[in-house]
Amino acid sequence: MDNIGYLLSDRSRLLRRAFDERVRALGITGPQARLLLHLLHNEGANQGHYAEQLDVEAITLCRMVDRMEEAGMIERRRDPADRRARQLYLTPRTRDMIEEVRACIDGLLEDMLAGISPPERAEFARLLTLIGTNLGARRDNKVPVNG
């Protein structure tokens, strides 16, 4: 059991690398693809929200958004509730591209889960969900060090 954390972390790294390689063939980076997928499900939030969701610094996301906006992949709009903030939206071009990203993901998942039966896949998903719940509960119940 000592190496289960390592196995999970290492396989996550391998999965991220494989994802990045597959979407690179579409002309985008892995982080850009992840942003597009987040936008698909939650379009119109401000940049800070997406930085948190992608676990990157706000300035890192800002630079990535700059490049994506210049390429016509996303659109920034003023936030009506906060004139300093910008909300992010997909462009028609990227709505079509997302289908290609999804196809990459479907192929990657099939490759990753080859040899694992449907019941085993369901159990694996259940266990990963439980792990996420456990980790989320620890994060939510975190006690501040300084009181």
Please give a structural write-up.
The protein is mainly alpha-helical and 147 residues long. It has helices at 4-24, 30-41, 47-54, 58-70, 92-112, 118-140; strands spanning 74-79, 82-90. The protein has a two-stranded antiparallel ribbon with strand order 1-2. The mean pLDDT is 90.
**What is the strand tally?**
2
- Roughly what percent helix? 55-70%
Secondary-structure class:
mainly alpha
Whole-number mean pLDDT: 90
Shape descriptor reads globular
Radius of gyration, whole Å: 18 Å
Instruction: Count every helix, treating DSSP H or I runs of 4 or more residues as helices.
Output: 6
Strand content: 5-15%
The largest sheet is: 2 strands, antiparallel
Residue stretches low in confidence (pLDDT < 50, at least 5 long) are none
Summarize the helix and strand pattern as letters: HHHHEEHH
Distance between the termini: 34 Å
State the assembly state of the protein chains: single chain
Q: How are the strands of the biggest sheet laid out side by side?
A: 1-2
List the helices and strands and how they pair.
Layout: H1 4-24, H2 30-41, H3 47-54, H4 58-70, E1 74-79, E2 82-90, H5 92-112, H6 118-140
Antiparallel strand pairs: 1-2
Helix pairs in contact: 1-5, 2-5, 3-4
Short description:
This protein is mainly α and 147 residues long. The chain has helices at 4-24, 30-41, 47-54, 58-70, 92-112, 118-140; strands at residues 74-79, 82-90. The protein has a two-stranded antiparallel ribbon with strand order 1-2.
